[in-house]
Amino acid sequence: MKIVLITDDFYPKLGGISNVLFNLYNHFLNTKHKLIIFNPFYESKNAFKVIKLRKYKIRDLKNIIMKNNYQTEIEVDGGVNVDNVADVVHAGADIVVMGSAFYNSPDYSETVRKVRERCGG
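and the corresponding structure tokens:
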């Protein structure tokens, strides 16, 4: 199984979520499964498979998935907000997680309306 996680809650950012992801990454090192973690805001030269993610990277990943007929979806978590959600979706993300965008919103309904409007839905 190949698993791709896209999040900004990973090294060098410290905290509960990054610790869980680090432990998950280490667990997969000793299995036949492959785990890749994309961090959109950090590029690492260390042993972690953490890759700086931009729109074209999502598009490239989507093209690889389509070309190889993989049965998988791309989920982007971290840094997605009302202002950039359309770019992320149009680049190829199937699922977006927008926790802070909603938690920091004074009006959830208006946030949902804006997201749908910007993503064409």
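(Above: one complete record from the training split.) Residues 16-29 form the longest helix (14 residues).
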